[in-house]
Amino acid sequence: VIEGPFAPQQGNFAVAGSALYDLGIKDPGFTAKTTFGSFGTKRLLLLWRPAGTTDHTFAGGELFSADGFGQNRASNRATTMGGYEGRLGKAGSYRLLATSYATHYAQAGVLREDDVVAGRKGFYDTYDTQQGGDATRHSLGVTLNGREGATKLSQSAFLIYRDFRLRDNFTGFQNDTVQTWQSAHAQRGDLIDQRSQTITIGGRGSARQPWTMFGKKHEIEFGYYARFDSVQGQQQRNRSGTNVPYRTDLNLSSALTNIGLYADANVHPLSWITLRGGVRGDLYHYRVTNHCALNTQSSFGSDPIDTDCFSSDRQGARSPDQTTSTSSTAVQPRTTLILGPFRGVTFSGSAGLGSRSLDPQYVNQDLKTPFASATSGEAGVAYLRSIGDVDVTVRSMLFQTKVDKDLFFNETEGRATLANGTTRTGWAGNVRITGNFFDIAANLTLVRATFDDTGLAIPYAPRSIFRVDGVLFGDLPLKIRNKKIEGSFGAGVSYAGSRPLPFSEQSESQFLVDLAASAKWKALTLGITCTNLLDRQYRLGEYNYTSDFRSQGYPTLVASRHFTAGEPRAVFATFGVTFDSVGEK
């Protein structure tokens, strides 16, 4: 994983993926869905899979737009995705996948709690209408699968282009103080304008070989992973109410390479014992050019006043850019032991080491460990059983993860920045019960997250998360032209416990209820969804720090509660038409 504001923005594609969640088509044919609802929401979804093909041959597209709730939340996006799978000889296959995604959106940003309580701002208002973002992602991937005797072979390659921009203001008018090398000026605003363009190319391959020993079947796999990212990233500060930058915080060009080799084995010494384990070795290589390496004037500098990137220091003239490079390796073993099942009960335990690459801005020349190391362990028990027509699954797991360099939200920088080591210890449990006419799933996670050096709680990390979803489905006691109507009704309840905040504060908890219902007759489907049924004014995120949005008579350096507002109650209606392989309507 290569992360950071000037590295690939993986989160952007999650939006595209969720938009095409409907791609789980079971039957071949064509589906068209349109959705209308609260806040001017409009959505059109088209999905197609030809008859006689596998699940990997399909095409889909989506158009979406919404005015957004409250102030400054309008958005629109478009997504396309297509795949094709074909045969190679008697035992081989190939897959092609192409995707394209683009979005433009406005965002309201944070509000001070005291301004909302005093009536100076509404719960869904904004301080700065210039906040928002853009993201595009275009990718092409190919995978080849084959077999040589008993050995399974796989090879894939991918090419991705990303373009990303984000504008947000967390502190208002606080950080633009007059420096010694600047002419006198008033606060110009703290709007952060982040931009990055990334080209990613990579591939992975593996060979999996089975063998038999002492009458038991085992498997071993060898493989590699390779990825290269070329990233151009900038962060600037813009004048309040405009798109005009007045200062450059960062201007980086980065070349990041990750190459990994691994071996993995799956061994069954006894029928009720499974031992899985292996080791992976990774090389991280960085080359980072900072085009604004000196953005503060030295006491002996000779640059003109109000210079953005300086070209002199205490030793004299210098270039404003500077390049650093480094590389290092990480050896990461992992093992898992599975015992059972014993009458549906299975015990498991695992432990291992992992790593995550650093943001390029933290790379120094010949840095010995340009990655964050993680040590994790978990132990659990699972119960899977069919009782008549009802399938029951219960899982319980204890876990602990230690990271030597974690990420922590920094309101001044407007993103997560490098922090000290942390430890997260917790328990996760889930239950799922499925029958002929119902499906119920519940999940609960409890976590204690602390910094290793102080033992203090990690801010913004929730201690408890609970979610339960249930659906009833089946034929309704109604017919149209002797054809029964299929119906479903579902509900979801979620709870997020309070989160620790800086300066020993606690956030509010969240409790939300969602409902959905649908009816299907032949090829026609009509559905309705209601989110936040109780119309609760909940806070999607809460923070505690100092700010000055000029909403009060005088600024203060006392930390204040800030929050981003969650969506109020919303109702959406969906109409869909599906044509099967023979054109049934």
What does this structure look like?
This protein has 585 residues and is mostly beta strands. Helix content is 2%, strand content 63%. It has two helices and 31 strands. The chain has helices at residues 11-19, 113-117, and strands spanning 29-37, 41-49, 58-66, 75-88, 92-106, 111-112, 132-148, 151-168, 191-213, 216-238, 245-270, 273-290, 312-313, 316-317, 322-342, 345-357, 371-387, 390-403, 406-410, 415-419, 422-434, 438-451, 464-480, 483-496, 500-501, 505-506, 510-521, 524-531, 539-545, 560-565, 570-580. It has a 22-stranded antiparallel β-barrel. Strands 6-30-29 form a three-stranded antiparallel sheet. The protein has a two-stranded antiparallel ribbon with strand order 13-14. Strand 25 and strand 26 (505-506) form a beta hairpin. The radius of gyration is 27 Å and the shape is globular. The two termini are 46 Å apart. Residues 1-26 have low confidence and may be disordered.
Q: With helices defined by DSSP (H or I, 4 residues minimum), what is the helix count?
A: 2
SS class: mainly beta
**How far is it from the N-terminal to the C-terminal residue, by CA?**
46 Å
What Rg do the Cα atoms give?
27 Å
The counted number of beta strands is: 31
Catalogue the unreliable spans: 1-26
Strand content: over 45%
Sheet of most strands = 22 strands, antiparallel, barrel
Helix content: under 10%
Identify the overall geometry.
Answer: globular
Mean of residue pLDDT?
91
